[in-house]
Amino acid sequence: MTPAGGAQCCPSGKGMLKRGDRRVFIRLFMAVPLPPAMAGRFSAWAAERRLPGARWTFSSSPHLTLQFLGETVSERRAAAEECLSAVGVPPFEAVLEGLGTFPDWRKPRVLWAGVSRGAEKLSSLAGSLNEELKIRHFSVEDRRYTPHVTLARFRNSPAGLDDLLAADLGTSWGTFTVDRICLFESHPSPHGPRYEILKESLLSSV
User: Fold this and answer.
1) With contact defined as beta carbons under 8 Å apart, do 174 and 38 qualify?
2) Which domain holds residue 136?
3) What is the pTM of this model?
């Protein structure tokens, strides 16, 4: 099957070829990896919830996205990797806590777990990454950053989701250390995307 947008899988199975374009495109994003135990907590919580129309999206390699680059020419990978080490931010602790939705609770399309302690530092980290990406001529989103982990997506917005989850709005998912940022490649598949770490950079103030 040919993917949408006139793209097709390249012969090696790595990345995408766009029709009429011989360059290889790879789907990239930058994120903070979370402890593997978080995946177990998400899975156990989801198993006890019956949410109409929910498509659970958390993976066995949970992460908190900082910047989504999307389809990127493979030759630009090195420039994206440079951004990781160019960010001068010391490690810090953060707490994954609470639930939220995009765009809002009245017509939810995305359900996510939020961040309480450490949210401002994560926003600052995402902002620093954005500046480094702009210097290297990447197109980035300038909208307000909300640190979160996507838990589920809805094709049709379920009514009364806030009532169904009223007892869960303050759920504490746990504390984690933000001590590294990674460049990920997303590999689509019929069973959901598989995430591969292409580059890891430890945080440091120097």
Assistant:
1) yes
2) 7-202
3) 0.85
